[in-house]
């Protein structure tokens, strides 16, 4: 009888679904804390920059992080594969914790000016280039292959939770104690991730790659692997097109559109809330189901149909209807994005996942932000309508391309 109870109580880690796995839940808790810390940090940084200088200077401070992130992202993927993603993620959050707490202490004692904010933003850009590929390479080391889609859904929910709660938390901290308090809270949130990450027990990878060459050779090997992969190579083109088409209008065009429609700042909030609700719904769907039949086909169609909603958003005069359109965009774009990430996780050899994740992240977090000035100039010349339509066409092209490539169209997630 005792033997039976012991056997029943000891459930092998591999048989547990992702939402019941202690390993996945530790990783998810660490990722949520880190995402919350990011949201609080960025709000505190933007507030401090605006308070310390002109709008142009504040914009420059906020843009500083994008340059090292774009230049170093591929190298960050090499480091994640060489050193192991857990080490890189722990080191990244530790550096962010120390830097932000140091800035908080400096602000309590003095007013260092924009140069200190720009220096911190630069450090964050470098650290992001290491953190993002590493955090993308961790799931196969803590979950079984058939649970990776569910893990991506849970990651999407954690990201949305961080975005929804982080901004109000940062705003409250700034209102009660100033930017120094907000930076201090961000540092504490980064610190909370460290013991959770340290407690992770990673699964050994089959056929772990041994690397005797240089980092440059590792990068070349990763790009060669990606180029020769029937599914991942075309998938990277899909991701890049979707990011370039989607990111500009949402970040730049929405503010102009809201001003022209007379919706004001609250209008931007409602539209973004609609988008976040739709994206959270897509992540919840993937978390609950854990498997989407004919994932490649669904990904292509949701990209193509979602592009219609992006183009229509610029021509909707009423705020409630615009918010509903944003829900549609969030649901479709969120589902296609989650499926892209899940396919990267399941199709890629884990030994290359850091480098492949770096290429996947490069479009949205490295190159797309650099296109913001071009998007702003185009809106100034032609107005938001044509620019939204052009962006929608790029997004639609990504979906059509996904449907046209047989290996992508037939791509499946493991059950």
Structural category is: mainly alpha
Order of helices and strands: HHHHHHHHHHHHHHHH
Q: How can the largest sheet be summarized?
A: none
Number of strand segments: 0
Q: Assign a percent range to the helix content.
A: over 70%
Please give the alpha-carbon distance between the first and last residues. 34 Å
Q: Strand portion, in percent? A: under 5%
What is the mean pLDDT? 84
Shape from CA axes? globular
Radius of gyration: 21 Å
* Low-pLDDT stretches: 1-14
Number of helices: 16
Characterise this structure.
With 415 residues, the chain is mainly α. It has 16 helices and no strands. Helix 5 packs across helix 7. The two termini are 34 Å apart. 50% of the residues are buried.
Q: Strands, helices and their partners?
A:
Elements: H1 2-9, H2 22-52, H3 55-63, H4 66-83, H5 85-109, H6 114-137, H7 148-198, H8 215-228, H9 232-261, H10 264-289, H11 295-313, H12 319-347, H13 353-367, H14 372-382, H15 384-404, H16 406-409
Helix pairs in contact: 2-3, 2-6, 2-7, 3-6, 4-5, 4-6, 4-8, 4-13, 5-6, 5-7, 6-13, 7-10, 7-12, 9-10, 9-12, 9-13, 9-14, 9-15, 10-12, 11-12, 11-15, 14-15
Which short descriptors sum up this protein?
mainly alpha, disordered N terminus, single chain, 415 residues
Q: What is this structure, in a nutshell?
A:
The chain has about 425 residues and is mostly helical. The chain has helices at about 1-10, 20-50, 55-65, 65-85, 85-110, 115-135, 150-200, 215-230, 230-260, 265-290, 295-315, 320-345, 355-365, 370-380, 385-405, 405-410.
């Amino acid at each position: 009888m005792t033997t039976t109870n012991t056997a029943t109580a000891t459930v092998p880690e591999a048989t547990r679904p992702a939402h019941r796995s202690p390993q996945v839940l530790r990783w998810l808790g660490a990722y949520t804390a880190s995402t919350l810390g990011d949201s609080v940090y960025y709000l505190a940084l933007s507030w401090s920059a605006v308070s310390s200088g002109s709008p142009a200077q504040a914009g420059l401070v906020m843009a500083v992080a994008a340059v090292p992130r774009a230049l170093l992202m591929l190298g960050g993927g090499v480091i994640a594969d060489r050193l192991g993603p857990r080490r890189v993620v722990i080191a990244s959050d530790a550096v962010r914790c120390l830097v932000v707490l140091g800035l908080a202490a400096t602000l309590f004692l003095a007013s260092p000016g924009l140069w200190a904010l720009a220096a911190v933003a630069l450090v964050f850009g470098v650290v992001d280039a290491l953190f993002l590929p590493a955090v993308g390479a961790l799931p196969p080391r803590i979950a079984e292959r058939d649970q990776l889609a569910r893990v991506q859904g849970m990651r999407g929910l954690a990201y949305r939770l961080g975005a929804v709660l982080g901004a109000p938390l940062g705003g409250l901290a700034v209102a009660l104690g100033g930017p120094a308090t907000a930076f201090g809270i961000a540092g504490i949130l980064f610190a909370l991730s460290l013991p959770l990450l340290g407690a992770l027990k990673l699964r050994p990878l089959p056929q772990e790659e041994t690397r005797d060459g240089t980092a440059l050779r590792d990068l070349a090997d990763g790009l060669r692997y990606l180029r020769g992969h029937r599914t991942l190579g075309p998938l990277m083109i899909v991701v890049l097109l979707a990011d370039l088409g989607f990111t500009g209008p949402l970040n730049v065009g929405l503010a102009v559109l809201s001003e022209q429609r007379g919706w004001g700042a609250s209008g931007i909030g409602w539209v973004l809330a609609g988008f976040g609700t739709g994206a959270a719904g897509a992540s919840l769907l993937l978390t609950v189901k854990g498997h989407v039949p004919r994932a490649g086909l669904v990904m292509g169609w949701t990209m193509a149909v979602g592009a219609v909603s992006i183009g229509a958003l610029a021509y909707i005069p009423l705020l409630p209807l615009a918010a509903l359109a944003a829900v549609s965009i969030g649901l479709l774009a969120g589902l296609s994005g989650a499926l892209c990430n899940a396919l990267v996780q399941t199709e890629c050899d884990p030994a290359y996942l850091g480098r492949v994740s770096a290429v996947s992240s490069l479009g949205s977090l490295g190159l797309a932000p650099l296109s913001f000035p071009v998007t702003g100039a185009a809106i100034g010349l032609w107005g938001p309508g044509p620019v939204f339509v052009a962006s929608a066409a790029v997004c639609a092209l990504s979906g059509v391309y996904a449907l046209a490539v047989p290996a992508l169209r037939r791509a499946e997630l493991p059950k």
